[in-house]
């Protein structure tokens, strides 16, 4: 698997150190609030698991799956719900946990949906953001790292469902998705 990676962009130590910092910040901001932390499947699942262990307030977790990409590296522009939340978001303080914000369309869709369902507050924590291809302007409250306009995989992020189990963020060799 390592041989398919052109370059390691963010190594394991750097990732975990930044997640420590985000945990401290989020703990401070949500003290006494019992937020509902929403993980956007599947990409954010590894980040979610590490992040919540560093948030020192009571919290609840829920999961939602959204489709916008299929198996390609380009967005189809279409967003739909594959798995909805189990909990009501009404009057809850919501923290959305995302793997990466690229065009911003997925996140804009989710924020809109939670607003319609009358959440009390909505904040966003994304591990990565790729500013180069932003279409929808969305406010991100906590950002792990900014990444260049390259297709990245690992630590939850996939190419055709593979590479999610890498412990770091890497750039895939072009030959993998050009064949
Ligand atoms: P948008 O464009 O809606 O994209 O902000 C959000 C979702 O697209 C996926 N995405 C990627 N997945 N490497 C990936 O593995 C990437 O470089 C990449 N860029 C976008 C991702 O699922 C994200 O939640
Ligand atoms: Mg994905």
Automatic annotation (TrEMBL):
Catalytic activity: GMP + diphosphate = guanine + 5-phospho-alpha-D-ribose 1-diphosphate; IMP + diphosphate = hypoxanthine + 5-phospho-alpha-D-ribose 1-diphosphate
GO MF term set: guanine phosphoribosyltransferase activity; hypoxanthine phosphoribosyltransferase activity; magnesium ion binding; nucleotide binding
Major localisation: cytoplasm
GO cellular component, one term: cytosol
Enzyme class: transferase
CDD domains reported for this sequence: PRTases_typeI
Keywords: Cytoplasm, Glycosyltransferase, Magnesium, Metal-binding, Nucleotide-binding, Purine salvage, Transferase
Gene Ontology BP term (one): IMP salvage
Pfam families in the cross-refs: Pribosyltran (PF00156)
Keyword Metal-binding found: yes
Protein name: Hypoxanthine phosphoribosyltransferase
UniProt gene name: hpt
